[in-house]
Amino acid sequence: MEQQAEVKEVGGKDFFTDLLESFVIAISISLFIGFTLVVPNKVEGQSMEPTFHNAELLLTNKVSQWLGGTDFGKTLGLDYQRGDVVIFDEYGVDYIKRVIAVGGDIVRINDGKVFVNGKELEEKYLPETTLTYCYSGEIAFLEDNQVKRVPEGHYFLLGDNRGNSKDSRFTDIGFVPRDYLLGKVFFRYWPINDISTITTGEFIERDITTSD
Fold first, then answer.
1. Which of 68, 64, 61 is nearest to 38 (CA)?
2. Is 110 in contact with 143 (CB distance < 8 Å)?
3. What pLDDT score does 74 carry?
4. From CA 201, how far away is CA 212, in angstroms rounded?
5. Average model confidence (pLDDT) for the chain?
6. pLDDT digit string, tens, across residues 6-33
7. What is the pLDDT of residues 84-130, one digit of tens each?
8. For the residues 171-199, what does the mean pLDDT come to?
9. Residue 138: what are its φ and ψ, rounded to 5°?
10. Could you read off the pLDDT of 141-158 as tens digits, one per residue?
11. Would you put residue 4 in left (φ > 0), alpha (ψ -120 to 50) or beta?
């Protein structure tokens, strides 16, 4: 008895069924990635200039948030570290800032300079003329020359535009709990002429030999 080969007619009902299935699978994969691995963000405002500008579009890696705090994630270097650009949620509003100090670090700002664990930070990702000042009064979380230790599981965050950024220097932000972080910014995809990978910002720690 002859064996009959089975074929599907191109353009028939089976073709459109396969096309629909492929579309559903693609959408499912995209949703999985969007909800678990990567999320798009839009910069609003000038608090991270000149690194990022208003209306730029970024991608945030959520793996750092889900796995970075585990032993496995720390072994792979996935956890947040000083110099990283992160997104965090505060009272339903998403902010983009840079990690300056992590849990256990001691922070101080004096005479326009940032100190972590007694060492002055030379932040290579900022213009050389950048100065960082604290605020005073009720809005100030960290006043000039005041020393504070970052609690474990928290971060001290600053915007790159130090003269126009609502960040950990303010009482209503302060040290940001890890649970508030949404992920680490790793890619800029708009505008087209500025498409680039975002890496951990470079800085130098300088020993202080004289008192302020």
1. 61
2. no
3. 84
4. 26
5. 87
6. 434 444 456 666 665 555 444 444 444 4
7. 999 999 989 999 999 999 999 999 999 999 999 999 999 999 999 99
8. 96
9. -65, -25
10. 999 999 999 999 999 999
11. beta
The pLDDT, as a whole number, for residue 18 is 60
Q: Give the pair of three-digit tokens for residue 57.
A: 């579009």
Cα-based distances in Å from 203 to 66, 81, 82, 178: 26, 12, 9, 22
Q: How far apart are CA 160 and CA 5, in angstroms?
A: 66
**What is the amino acid identity at position 23?**
F
159 CB-side CA count, 13 A: 23
Relative to beta strand 106-110, strand 93-102 is unpaired
Contacts of residue 97, Cβ cutoff 8 Å, sequence gap at least 6: 47, 48, 85, 86, 88, 157, 158, 159, 165, 167, 168
Beta-carbon count within 10 A of 194 CB:
12
